[in-house]
Amino acid sequence: MNLEKVIFGFFIVLALTLNFGFFLGEFDNPVYHNVYELFAVIVVNLIATVLKLGDRTQIGAILLSTSLVADLELIAAALYWTIVVHVTGSELTPDVTATIVSLSGGALVANVVSVVMVVAETLMLRR
């Protein structure tokens, strides 16, 4: 068993499940979407991105690009949340929450693609 692959797989799946947990709930109700959970999703996605940097294969390049997409969308969601709440002083309205959750949904799709590719790559390996 390769410990590096185990750690890599762990963070990829953890990023997907945390993102799903944040995404789940009423789309426009801020009660279902916690800021700390979004922060955890961002941190785990960034760790997963760093772990993908060393892979020089074609699949590694695609995995890195999906991870960068997820990072970009999650950081955009966090920035939007921060600007609305702390810069403008507004509360989370249903419109704002829907935008944040939509960005998280885009990152969720990118995470699903990453996990599917890792599973497909693993299934194609021959001993």
What would the keywords be for this entry?
elongated; 127 residues; mainly alpha; 4 helices
Biggest beta sheet attributes? none
Counting structural domains, the number is: 1
Measured by DSSP, the beta-strand proportion falls in under 5%
Please give the radius of gyration in angstroms: 16 Å
Assembly level: single chain
Mean pLDDT across all amino acids = 93
H/E order of the elements? HHHH
Give the structural class. mainly alpha
Uncertain residue segments: none
Instruction: Give the N-terminus to C-terminus distance in angstroms.
Output: 12 Å
Helix content: over 70%
Number of strands: 0
DSSP summary: helix tally? 4
* Global morphology: elongated
How would you summarize this macromolecular structure in one to three sentences?
The chain has 127 residues and is mainly alpha-helical. It is 79% helix and 0% strand. It has helices spanning 3-23, 35-52, 58-87, 94-124.
Describe this structure in words.
The chain is an all-alpha fold. The chain has one domain (3-124). The protein is 79% helix and 0% strand. The chain is built from four helices and no strands. It has helices at 3-23, 35-52, 58-87, 94-124. The radius of gyration is 16 Å and the shape is elongated. The model has no long low-confidence stretch (mean pLDDT 93).
SSE topology:
Layout: H1 3-23, H2 35-52, H3 58-87, H4 94-124
Helix pairs in contact: 1-2, 1-4, 2-3, 3-4
